[in-house]
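Morning F.,

Quick status update on the modeling queue. The single chain you submitted on Monday has been processed. Sequence for confirmation:
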Amino acid sequence: MRINILESLKFFDDPTEVGHASAIIGVIGEDLCASSFAHYINSKNKNTNCIVLDLPVSKGTLRGHRLDRWIVDNDNKIIYQTEIKNWSSTAKNGIRLPALAEDSMVSAVVEINLKNQIKGSFYQAEKVLEKMNKPKIYSEYTLLPLLIYWMPISTDGVTPFSKIKVEDMNLAYTPSEFSELELFSVSLYFRKLLQEVESLDLDMPNAEKRLVVLGNLLKSS
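Structure tokens below.
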């Protein structure tokens, strides 16, 4: 699917109308975020083969936490157990940020968002630090936890991909499986892309199927 970068930033970060973000996110949100991260990894090295898997992310039991996606960086032999947070400017504590904002303004919002996440103990994100069962085919790959946000957030200026030490996350308890958490911001990545291109093509299979179903529901007889 072809994504208009500027319109995406306007819609999620500085909307002229409110009340539609949750509905749109329900249709495309997780696909958009996961595929944007894969695109980011692939763009860093043209030989990189980063893909999003259509497999459940769990501990291999009927009960327990589930995550949103497996994302595999085949070139670097890394598999990410991924949780996706589609929070945008219309979410609780969301901050409006113009699509063409200066870096100084973006940096200020990034800092506020990071502080809010630390203050809130990275709300609902603890489960991404619980070790999940890797698919057998990737048993030799390095397993890393990844938290993808829409909103601008980073521990490294306005860099889209950063990391934070678990001990700095202000969690109620300290999980033992991982010492660091990878963070990725789709908004920051789109802002970087906008300096070079107007759109990007992403593999979004679930979103495509949902739009087909929606189109069929809205067809006139």
